[in-house]
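Checklist before submission:
- one chain only
- standard amino acids only
- sequence pasted in full

Submission:
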Amino acid sequence: MTTTADATTADATTAALRSPSAAQSTYQTRVADYWNAEENPVNLELGKIDDLYHHHYGVGDADWSVLDEPDPALLRERVTTELHRLEHAQAELLATHLGPLSPADRVFDAGCGRGGGSVVANLRYGCRADGVTLSAKQADFANEQARQRGIDGKVRYHCRNMLDTGFPSGAFAASWNNESTMYVELDLLFAEHARLLRRGGRYVVITGCYNDTYGRASREVSLINAHYICDIHPRSEYFRAMARNRLVPVHVQDLTDTAIPYWELRKRADHLVTGIEDTFLTAYKNGSFQYLMIAADRV
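Returned file contents:
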């Protein structure tokens, strides 16, 4: 039986999870509206496989034998499963670079989407995790997933601004952005990560960025920006902004070649295509766009 006191406490907790600690700009409101309305099968159908909902792309060699399945229904199922395997491999790759973590540690997932990355970190390390998204719908969905997994005591999601979270300074052993940096100014973002991380804490980012050696942002990069209502940064700006905000890279990895199989397979998935697949493939192959991972220590 739920008492009035219980209901009041629950309402207060929900309000805390949903209260941004800073006013949103008009652009951020547009981003929140976009993700509150988003019901893309490429995010939802893949997550239904094991209730791990990732909002990013995949890496690694694809199992092309899935395309040999003659039964249309089974073909759809096998391709969906394979794409999910590749996106989960990307989440696991990021998690391996978060450093040595213990169940007593706390980690921060900036731009958490529907929450898959925080769950991966908790399953791997047993750590506590706080995810932040501008979308109240995503935060509610992710919190319900954590509750169903029985990890809601350690993994929580908040509708807040990742640039000004309201969390205590130095409270986190590790933090990350997984394909969410293109929605914010890097200096503001890295300043907040540096504030949240304890000295020696690890920050990891996996992102698409445009290649400075190509020149200005290519037509394909502009099309990706328009598709996702974002602003892709040049590769060089990540390193400049990190240097300005006490984040020192310890590992840099170009994942571009390992990302191409995911996009090639997704292009063949009629039930999942969004129309942006060829744009990504062209940008990767002409060298104007890169898929990069950077791990940095907070000094």
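Reviewer check: The CA atoms of residues 98 and 202 lie 6 Å apart.
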